[in-house]
């Protein structure tokens, strides 16, 4: 069942949430479509294995708190995941109804439950006595991996402190995802508050590797285990001429200024440069977020992508919304140089047309330049949305932590790193991926930390 949304012409000029979500009648009607398969593939497709048919059965009965209780067993961020997870490639992608028609709208049902429940998740401590000294665990980073890991450990009776480098908790959920997709106060802060209600402490403005090191946390402050969930905040660039001109930004910086530092609000003095004509280079969700943000700040926006629409890595919903709002897509196009004026500001981007050649290692056909097809795209701002790598600071300041060629921490499937007592998961290990995959990694690491501490 389609969900109600803001009119594209209206929402292109505001930062209010695009989707209104289901009301109770709509949710119950959509939930009634579930076939309650004997072997539910949707659960297999969920990285945190939410018991989807079970929570949906509660929605059919109108029992929202019962549904919330089922989800809470496996996910501490349902309102976030219901909004930003790529359900079409995970739970909904496995739904049997999707073979011949529309799959059950699992993500929208999860969002409805999270937004309308009246109960708060309760701590389930395994400690024999509430006032007994509890084992201290440090979690570095308050993004989805860190929050999921901390929530599970707190429920099992551990004394958990999250250390966050920025001035607000949430990690990529706070700095990377725009307000029109994930409202910060109404949704994100509410779910962070639920995690802290379990007894988790969050210390902001603490840069591990600068303010304090992992070694000192373990040697001097009594932390018996550490989880590293620092995400992937290091932006990539193309290495083409002109990338140092004024008016060229990484999507990371552009979105952080707008989302975390609230540059879109007139009552905030955060500076943000948005030109008359913006080119966003890239085709993932971050590119869509940057493009749709620039549009709302008053620019004409073009997305430049080197493959065709079929290969766009962004969610179909995000691409659809961007087109509805009036963003132009230039496919099979790749920048080769950014051109500047006499004052060092961007004036155009020289591009070359591409065609698709043989498939690369990932199975996608590799783009090949068409010789002699260069042309200029007029613009005064370029936003590079080409992916991100893990921040190298933790590995550089923690002896014995090995990294991969791409800069991620070496860790087992369960999250154990090359240093005993130090665990890692999410984008800090894999490079940029999805919120729910990071949460799944955080939960696996929490279990591994629990096992490690019980056996050591």
Highlighted features:
456 residues, alpha/beta, 5-stranded parallel sheet, 16 strands, 34% helix
Summarize the structure.
With 456 residues, the protein is an alpha/beta fold.
Task: Report what the structure shows.
This protein is of the alpha/beta class and 456 residues long. The protein is 34% helix and 17% strand. The chain has 18 helices and 16 strands. Helix 15 (316-324) links the parallel strand 8 and strand 9. Helix 2 (24-31) crosses helix 4 and helix 13 packs across helix 14. 48% of the residues are buried.
The amount of beta strand, in percent, is: 15-25%
Give the N-terminus to C-terminus distance in angstroms: 51 Å
Task: Compute the average pLDDT.
Answer: 95
SS field, number of helical segments? 18
Shape: globular
Number of strands: 16
Strands of the biggest beta sheet: in what spatial order? 3-2-1-4-16
Radius of gyration, rounded?
23 Å
Which class best fits the helix and strand makeup? Answer: alpha/beta
What level of helicity do the residues show?
A: 25-40%
Low-confidence stretches: 125-130
Taking the sheet with the most strands, its summary is: 5 strands, parallel
